[in-house]
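In response to the reviewer comment on reproducibility (Comment 2.3), we provide here a single inverse folding case reported in full, input and output, so that an independent group could reproduce the run without further information from us. The structure tokens appear first.
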């Protein structure tokens, strides 16, 4: 049972209109947004931040951004966000071999050195205490420019918020997210946990 129940998608029409963004990303409006709309200023600000963070202005693809989100969510243990991130990675064109082997990105040949640097950055930045160090910085700068690094940290930070929100809230997970979680993450022990 969630800490706070989500409201109807029709509760706040401005949120509903902004939330159309998630129909492309996930195929549904997340229950997290439906809960945030109990304070519509929060739901609207969150959706606008999400859109800004996920906009592509460099070489960081939509698929890579979602894999960065998955690594961050895996590091923090949020099963809700893990399933959402892997579903969005699939919907945004991540290679099947990458989806099937996301757990092994450090060594699997489906990932190149630039992607590994980005995903290692996500892992280090999502840890408490923070693990970003000179070695991570050096590897990032071998492959990415400063604007692209800002885009990546935007994703990591956005998912830091979502990981805290959804794990604390015990947000009910949607069927489509469960399906993606079981398909790509189940073999490594993923389950809904408290997100029923």
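Designed residues, in position order:
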């Amino acid at each position: 049972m969630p800490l706070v129940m989500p409201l109807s998608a029709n509760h706040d029409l401005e949120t509903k209109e902004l939330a159309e963004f998630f129909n492309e990303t996930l195929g549904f409006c997340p229950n997290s947004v439906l809960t945030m709309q109990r304070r519509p200023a929060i739901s609207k600000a969150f959706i606008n931040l999400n859109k800004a963070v996920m906009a592509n202005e460099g070489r960081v693809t939509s698929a890579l951004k979602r894999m960065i989100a998955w690594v961050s969510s895996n590091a923090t243990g949020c099963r809700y966000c893990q399933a959402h991130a892997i579903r969005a990675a699939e919907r945004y064109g991540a290679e099947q071999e990458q989806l099937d082997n996301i757990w092994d990105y450090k060594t699997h040949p489906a990932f190149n050195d630039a992607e590994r640097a980005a995903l290692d950055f996500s892992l280090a930045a999502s840890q408490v205490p923070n693990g970003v160090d000179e070695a991570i910085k050096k590897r990032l700068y071998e492959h990415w420019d400063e604007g692209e690094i800002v885009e990546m940290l935007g994703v990591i930070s956005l998912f830091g918020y979502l990981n805290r929100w959804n794990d604390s809230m015990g947000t009910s997970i949607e069927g489509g997210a469960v399906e993606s979680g079981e398909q790509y993450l189940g073999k490594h022990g993923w389950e809904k946990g408290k997100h029923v």
